[in-house]
Write a structure and sequence with these properties.
This protein is an alpha/beta fold. The chain is built from 20 helices and 14 strands. The relative contact order is 0.11.
Length: 561
Amino acid sequence: MKFIKNIFSYLFILIFANISAQYFPKNGNENLNLKAEEYADSLYNSLSLDEKIGQLYIIALYNNRGEEEIQKIRNLVENEKIGGLILMQEDVEKHIALLNEFQGKSKVKMMIGIDGEWGLFQRFPVAHKFPWAMTLGAIQNNNLIYEMTSKIAEDCKRMGIYWDFAPVVDVNTNPANPIIGNRSFGSDVNNVIAKGLAYAQGLQDNGVLASMKHFPGHGDTDKDSHLDLPVVSHHLERLDSIELAPFKALMDKKIGGVMVAHLYVPALEKKKGIPATLSYNIVTNLLKNKYNYKGLVITDALNMNAVAQKFPAGELDLKAFKAGNDLLLFSQDVPNGKALIKKAIEKGEISEERLAESVKKILKTKFLLNLQDLKPINPENINEDLNNSSHAELSEKLYANAITLLKDEKNLLPLNCNQTYYYLPLEEAPFQTLVDVLNFGTTINVISKEEISQIPENSTVIVGFHKDNSTAYKPYKISQESKDILSELSKKQNIILDIFGSPYALKDVDISTISTVLVSYENNDLSLKASAKALLGKTKISGKLPVIVNENLKAGSGIEK
């Protein structure tokens, strides 16, 4: 009896070891897992080969490109039986109407995804914008990140979205990276792992699938894979310790998806010019076999020039599936791609078992997300639901906790309510919200560059570097004029420098003669408001630098005050 009991215990452990490597609801149990397996098996057996292959596809839905574009998607839903959609721009009410229509026509409910790294705002202007990952990387309380993505999950489900293609767990070791940058939690591997886990769990504990990206690591690239194929030329030891490290650490944490990048990594793929997305060595041998990853493996968008300009549409789909990807994102020719995959199966180039592996995994995940019981989406009050005071309060708290004090040599903080300060805004973005809040706690005189000579000597001057906050991808270079003004001003005045942009803005700024330096990370009303309260001492400053800026400013730098 003891032997039999031990055998059952061992089998139980094996079953749950398997579950732990893929998405599973927070309150799920083994009975739910068995139901999901039965559902996937039964539904798979009821599908035609054409319908099975259709499940592999997630196609982009734009509603701002005219009725002809929408009709193309309608045809793919009705005729090609595609497995899902990724929502792009722009009108949320129109998206809801289309999703209700398309889901009603789908024999198998579609998986609806979005690139929502900083919330639905990334695609929908009416939604609330949450902080970028770089800002979150500075926060010391990871529960706040979990709280943020719990809210994003709520917004996603309100829009019928059940897969957020986030978090980015690329370790951004290259300050000149043109595509990751603010989308990364930083350059410290352990911080990226901790933040990535909190982010993913906030989504998945609230019923929305997460997806680690961009495997095997896009953090040290100098090309944008939307435009060309980046090369990551590091040796295997470096890849293991930096680029691959977050993925390896998070593989067994039930994170339901991983997105494979269009990168050429010679240490992992010997055949020249083969991107990771099309590499059997990387997707199957490394990710699925060596790392034993059981979640959904999805390509990055197949319309990106890194692959689209090198491989014919449709043929690209076949190559990606042969490499081991479960899902094909943004195919440019679904009918041709499906036909090529079907032909390869019929010729025995792809086994029925290989197709079943991916499709059953997709169907099982849809069941665990409860898509089989999906109800029509209610458009009423959608704008208010996606952007209200609860969003703003949470974002301001996040910005407040990210603010990083790098130095305060003359103890100029907090500001003195009985003192008069001068405020000099530099660079290109708005600043008035900061001044308005500061004036509630002290006296602020705003001056222009032309009025600097009028400031009495030995005054305290707050200098704000206000960088454009309209995109996560814009480089944060401080103009030579601003650097020169700062240098001259510091010779006669006490300076508090506040950077409303990426910490990389300080890369070539001399702060050796500046008493007080803060990084507030972003330039919008909520970050400006949070920074003003921190300057006044109304909130604690506790953030730590998430990236290596230069030899003097290392990741982890920051003074609590």
